[in-house]
Structures are given as structure tokens and as C-alpha cells.
Write a structure and sequence with these properties.
Helix content: 25-40%
Structural class: alpha+beta
Strand order of the largest sheet: 1-2-3-4-7-8-6-5
Radius of gyration: 30 Å
Length: about 260
């Protein structure tokens, strides 16, 4: 005769069924979690591509269009067929006190910046303000409100992204003492020369004072300061470039030799 099952024998199938269901639930939850992680990974990758690549594409296009819309570049004189191309000419440097424009309204583009060290085709717009949404992201380089205007006594201080949104100051660490920084307004050219570079903390705002690094100082020079984040892909510090005005020239003249290649 077969022995009747004990209480423990009857409970075993019930526990086994519950364990199987628990394992199924756990596996299902793990699968859902895995799918969520994959989705988040794809979204994160897409964000990185957008942030580091597509914003540059859009920024380059937008900033190039802003420069083109200024219509400041004169058309070259036509050269008759068979005639040799003319030798490039350059603006005559002036060292007297230059005319200085008034500060424009917020986000108004009032100048362009040429940096020969960054390539002969480098030219970016400069607009009023340094907020990201209205100026730095869509327009490139921003001017610190209240600092000197181009050619003015004091410190013409500007800021730009080092990465993303066209990254106008991406190669800032390549600048060396003596490099020209050429600023164009509607009416005039201003040629500055790099005098120093430094790395500071974000709170060291004295770098954009009228006399950089000397709060309350009375300016005796016409200066320029470029600021951007440092190191690359971080806002932990700021990379700073200082310069002083070398000379100016009316925009009606030819471009400065530093960018025209003229004599």
C-alpha cells in the first residue's frame, strides 16, 4: 500500500509554485529595468551628440549668417580679363584717440572679431550681453555690459563658449603674447595685441575691471579681455586672455594687414 502523503509533502508543490512565480516576476522586472537602462543610454547618447556636435553645426551657421547680414565686407573691385590681380593693400594705422560708439541694446550685434591665429577665415559676431539664452548660445560672442566698447579707454571685455554652440573660443589656449585680435565695428577697425593669459576662479570678476586685476583702478590703456570656461568641457575655472590696443583705422580704409595680407 502506498503511504499517504504527509503535511510537508502536500505543502511542497505550493511553495514550488510560489517560488516559480517570484522568479518570473523578478526576471520580468529585470527585463523592464534593462530596457529602461538601454533607452536612457540611447537618450543620453543622443543628447551628447546634440550638445557636442549639432549645436556646433547650428551655431556655426547662425553666426556666419549674422556676420553676412551686417553687410560690412566691401565687394572686391572687378579685375579686367587678362589683367593681373592687384596687390592687397592694408589700412594705415592710427594711434590717436579713436572714436568710440555707445553701448547698444541687449543682444544687438555691433562688432565682429577676427583672430588670425585661429585661421584666415575666422570671423565671429560680437553682441551686447553675456546671458546664454539671448546671446552666447544663439549669437556666439557676448560683451560684458558696462565694460568699455571697442577702442574705448578701459577694458573691452567679451565672453564666448569654448565648447558647443559654435565654440567661438575653442582654441583660446593657443593664443600667445603678441597675437593680433582684430575687432571691426561698422565704422572702424581696432587691432589689439595679446599681452598675457591666466587661469582664474569663476568668482574672480576683477579680470574684467577697467584695469584688469585692480579693482577701483583708473584706466590709462585701451584694453581687451577674452573670457571662457576652463578646462575643456568644464566650468570649474576660467581661461582669460588680456590685450591692449595697438592701433585703429577707419573701416572705409582697407582691412588691417593682420587679416588682409597687405603690405
Amino acid at each position: 500500500m502506498t503511504a499517504a502523503p504527509t503535511r510537508g509533502d502536500r505543502a511542497a508543490p505550493v511553495n514550488s509554485s510560489r517560488g516559480a512565480r517570484s522568479r518570473q516576476v523578478a526576471l520580468g522586472a529585470t527585463g523592464v529595468l534593462g530596457e529602461l537602462m538601454i533607452t536612457l543610454g540611447v537618450l543620453l547618447l543622443a543628447f551628447i551628440v546634440w550638445q557636442l556636435w549639432w549645436t556646433d553645426v547650428q551655431g556655426d551657421r547662425a553666426q556666419a549668417q549674422i556676420v553676412a547680414d551686417l553687410h560690412w565686407t566691401p565687394s572686391p573691385m572687378p579685375v579686367p580679363d587678362g589683367a593681373p590681380s592687384p596687390t592687397p593693400s592694408s589700412a594705415t594705422p592710427r594711434h590717436d584717440a579713436p572714436p568710440v560708439m555707445a553701448e547698444p541694446g541687449h543682444a544687438v550685434t555691433f562688432a565682429t572679431l577676427f583672430v588670425p591665429r585661429w585661421g584666415k577665415d575666422y570671423v565671429r559676431p560680437v553682441s551686447q550681453g553675456v546671458d546664454r539664452v539671448g546671446v552666447l548660445d544663439p549669437k556666439g560672442i557676448g560683451h560684458y555690459v558696462g565694460t568699455a566698447m571697442p577702442g574705448g579707454m578701459g577694458n573691452f571685455a567679451i565672453s564666448g563658449h569654448r565648447t558647443t554652440y559654435g565654440k567661438p573660443f575653442n582654441r583660446i589656449a593657443e593664443l600667445v603674447v603678441g597675437d593680433p585680435l582684430v575687432v571691426r565695428t561698422k565704422d572702424n577697425w581696432f587691432v589689439y595685441r595679446v599681452t598675457s593669459t591666466e587661469i582664474v576662479r569663476p568668482g574672480d570678476v576683477q579680470v574684467i575691471d577697467p584695469v584688469p586685476g585692480k579693482p577701483g583702478g583708473v584706466p590709462t590703456k585701451r584694453s581687451i579681455t577674452l573670457t571662457t570656461c576652463h578646462p575643456m568641457f568644464s566650468a570649474r575655472q576660467r581661461f582669460i586672455v588680456h590685450g591692449v590696443l595697438d592701433y585703429w583705422a577707419p573701416a572705409a580704409d582697407a582691412a588691417p594687414a593682420e587679416i588682409s595680407g597687405g603690405a
